[in-house]
Amino acid sequence: MNRKELEPGKSPRASFGVHLRTSREQRGWTQDELAAEMGYAGSHVSAVETARKPPTLRFSQSSDRALGTGDKFERLWRELRNGALLEGFPEYVGYEGRAVEIRLYEIGIVPGLLQTPAYARVLADSAVRRGAITQQYAEERLAFLAERQEALARHRPPTVLVVMDESCVRRLVGGPEVMAEQLDQLVACAAKPSTVLQVIPFESGERRPFDLPVYLLTMPDRSMLAYAESQTRGHLDRETPSVLPMLGAYHQLQAEALSQADTVAMIQEIRKGIS
Questions:
Q1: What is the mean pLDDT of the chain?
Q2: pTM strictly above 0.85
Q3: Which CATH number fits domain 87-113+153-274: 3.30.870.10, 1.10.1040.10, 3.40.50.11270, 1.20.59.20?
Q4: Alpha helices, DSSP H only, in the chain?
């Protein structure tokens, strides 16, 4: 049987694969035997071990359970994710999956939770071409985004309030076909009873209270968290005295934004122009 030699120093994903193979072989298991314990196919285990496929949180937790490694692989997965994401964002996402209300404000691009796979792929591939991230990190970002979106599809989904700068819907990303699909997705999201979608128009000018993306979470115990980011780093804030003013500013933002009906009308008009 051919055995591919692994290089743990090549990337965080390769390091994960080496640890997985080592732990599996210490148990005397084949890939198929480990896969059976985890509820995966042997080919999936092989792809993760050889860094051809990124591990997911579920895969990592299943590895820990099957191999009796505590939370080793979950920690490796989180370290891997931190390498592909801004500081503070993985911690924010941990709270996002449990929040009862999610308030988002985005500039320039559609918020990740509402992105289509094609739109997200274009953004990730663009970052690779600019040299901002590696192709492996791009794949990890996309897998991470898919997990975030899946976390919202629960029995009682959170209320999601989204305000987007007008640039989010007018900036052509990925060409007409990709953008048309993304705009259709936004209209579909606006129709969901758990989602409120608004655009703040360019003419709001200086009345727009935020100049950077902002995310606000309300947790089941009604506590609140805020996450804001710049080009190079993010910051998670759990201190009530600093989070509450951001909530007040978000309410001002919503007051300046178009109603959901007017927002949908704007998106549909833009959609006609690129079809």
A1: 87
A2: no
A3: 3.30.870.10
A4: 12-26, 31-38, 42-49, 57-67, 72-84, 89-96, 117-129, 135-152, 167-170, 175-190, 240-256, 260-274
